[in-house]
């Protein structure tokens, strides 16, 4: 059985649970999310591992890049990540990573972008199962009507992230 090394990391918008295995980030998720147990169970099952508190180089790099993001010095991430889910979920998560900084899209647009326009509910479920928040920017997905839809970190956190990105882009505060 493998160890999935974890650490907690406080950001300006909430506490994240970071996890890595084999030098790759497999977890950057909201510590107090509603589906914490199901996300943790899925990760541990797919890795065939258990959590152990320990620091790793990739977690140091993740904290550094997240700090740069919140300091307006980074608009994208360059981290070795391990996406743990079904092939469909991975397809959705890869599409999320194509959403530009300070831009939002709808579940319908995501469904169209992966050539599955009728899979809106499945897209929303895959989005909700994302275990690498901010880096795989599920916060940039909004409802088809333009309203904010659910978010693992909470709607207020989603609103803060979208507002932060929009303001910093508008004011040219973030440097790529």
Explain this structure.
This protein has helices at 36-47, 57-70, 87-96, 107-113, 120-128, 155-170; strands at residues 2-11, 14-21, 24-30, 49-53, 105-106, 141-142. The chain has 176 residues and is of the alpha/beta class. The protein has a four-stranded mixed beta sheet. Strands 5-6 form a two-stranded parallel sheet. It is globular. 31% of the residues are buried.
In brief:
This protein has 2 domains: 2-70, Double Stranded RNA Binding Domain (2-Layer Sandwich), CATH 3.30.160; 87-170, Winged helix-like DNA-binding domain superfamily/Winged helix DNA-binding domain (Arc Repressor Mutant, subunit A, Orthogonal Bundle).
Annotation keywords:
4-stranded mixed β-sheet; 2 domains; Arc Repressor Mutant, subunit A; 19% strand; two-stranded parallel ribbon; Double Stranded RNA Binding Domain; alpha/beta
CATH topology-level fold name of the largest domain: Arc Repressor Mutant, subunit A
Radius of gyration: 16 Å
Give the tally of structural domains.
Answer: 2
CATH class of the largest domain: Mainly Alpha
In what order do the strands lie side by side in the largest sheet?
Answer: 3-2-1-4
Helical residues, percent:
25-40%
What is the β-strand count?
6
- Annotated CATH homologous superfamily of the largest domain: Winged helix-like DNA-binding domain superfamily/Winged helix DNA-binding domain
With helices defined by DSSP (H or I, 4 residues minimum), what is the helix count? Answer: 6
